[in-house]
Amino acid sequence: MKAFPAGKLEIEGHCDERGTNEYNLALGNQRTAAALAYLKTLGVDEARFTTISYGKEKPLCTEAKESCWSQNRRGEFKLK
After folding, report:
1. CB atoms within 10 A of CB 9
2. Half-sphere exposure of 32 (CA within 13 A, CB side)
3. pLDDT tens by residue, 34-45
4. Which domains does the chain have, with CATH numbers?
5. How far apart are CA 53 and CA 75, in angstroms?
6. How far is residue 9's CA from residue 74's CA, in Å, rounded to a whole number?
7. Are 14 and 76 in contact (CB under 8 A)?
């Protein structure tokens, strides 16, 4: 981010399929907030980021087992 001062990122929060929609959206928001807080400690301006929680709506893996669920619990960074 420091090498590209005009760059902006969207931070996406994702969850596994367990839990209610409301719970997973809130958990996705917590993931994005944690990532944003960390980036702020590195000196990156918060205005360069947007955050969104997708909850369980965009899984990487759809099998009902822990190895799959762990892939779905993630944060992603998208260059805008």
Report:
1. 20
2. 24
3. 999 999 999 989
4. 9-79 (3.30.1330.60)
5. 9
6. 16
7. yes
